[in-house]
Design goal:
CATH topology: Rossmann fold
Order of helices and strands: EHEHEHEHEHEHHHE
Strand content: 5-15%
Radius of gyration: 17 Å
Helix content: 40-55%
CATH superfamily: NAD(P)-binding Rossmann-like Domain
Number of strands: 7
Number of domains: 1
CATH class: Alpha Beta
Strand order of the largest sheet: 3-2-1-4-5-6-7
Bound molecules: nicotinamide-adenine-dinucleotide
Structural class: alpha/beta
Largest sheet: 7 strands, parallel
Distance between the termini: 39 Å
Number of helices: 8
Length: about 250
């Protein structure tokens, strides 16, 4: 692999709260950034975040739930952009706190498709080219809802547990090829999918009370999560394999 400063990272969900912070932090480290999101306009949010630091970046529209769309992404990344060294499976959706009594099969399928099938399809598409390059890194964005029950609703919680299983199985399958696969489990971050909850007056008091039980006594921010992704993608994490790193202010520690 080239050294950290000339590597290419592909970020899915790049136009979202965490995605934009990741594009920015990878650009800060000198990575070329491939910003991927559902449509070109949203992907451009990631390109702009990387470009604000002068980093070379390009955007691509891809629905990570659609195998043909992901195949097009793979061809673009490898044939037109020269391949990638790191893949951040960050795209995800949150269905609210729907539980077994309130979720519909359609909503369940939609969450499974984005949160679980998406990282599977993108990894499956890009692992051959990472292998050809002699190795690489995959970072899957899970959640504290992937480690405990009660933190996300039934479909979100189930898919994020699945992302951790996917991470461990890929680490087992791909370690020998020089591919490291790890997961990040963010707690409540003041960005993206958490914002509607934090801004919902009927929930915000409950969220604030919950935060008072977290050792850090505060919410996380997107940059903190992005810096962990940068660490996992880089050579300082060369022996970190199949790990799930919570970044939650201690939420899962107590
Ligand atoms: N914000 C938090 O508190 C928090 C906590 C734990 C985990 N996470 C995880 O972090 C990741 C990023 O979430 P965020 O908070 O930035 O939310 P966000 O909604 O701001 O960003 C998610 C991005 O994914 C994209 N996306 C959705 N469906 C897609 C699809 N089918 N194909 C391609 N892109 C698609 C969206 O367009 C959006 O830009 C998610 O996996 C989420 O579950 C977030």
């Amino acid at each position: 692999m080239p050294d950290d400063a000339t590597r290419t990272v592909l970020v899915t969900g790049a136009g979202g709260g965490l995605g934009r912070a990741m594009c920015e932090e990878f650009a800060r480290e000198g990575y070329r950034v491939l910003a991927v999101d559902l449509d070109q306009e949203t992907a451009q949010g990631g390109v702009d975040a990387a470009g604000a630091l002068g980093g070379p970046a390009a955007g691509f529209a891809c629905d990570v739930t659609d195998p043909e769309s992901v195949a097009r992404l793979g061809r673009w990344a490898t044939e037109e952009r020269g391949g990638v060294d790191a893949v951040i499976n960050n795209a995800g959706i949150f269905e609210g706190f729907l539980d077994i009594d309130t979720i519909t099969p359609e909503r369940w399928d939609a969450v499974v498709a984005v949160n679980l099938t998406g990282p599977f399809l993108v990894s499956r598409e890009l692992i051959p080219s990472l292998t050809e390059r002699g190795g690489g890194v995959i970072v899957n964005i899970a959640s504290i809802a992937g480690m405990v029950g009660g933190a996300g609703g039934i479909a979100y919680t189930t898919t994020k547990h699945g992302v951790i299983g996917l991470t461990r199985e890929l680490a087992y399958n791909c370690g020998e090829r020089g591919i490291r696969v790890n997961a990040i489990a963010p707690g409540v971050i003041e960005a993206g999918v958490s914002l509607p909850l934090l801004n919902d007056p009927s929930r915000s008091a409950d969220m604030t009370a919950k935060m008072q039980e977290v050792p850090a006594r505060r919410l996380g921010n997107a940059r903190e999560v992005a810096r962990l992704a940068v660490y996992l993608a880089g050579d300082d994490a060369a022996f970190v394999q199949g790990a799930v790193l919570p970044i939650d202010g201690g939420f899962t520690a107590v």
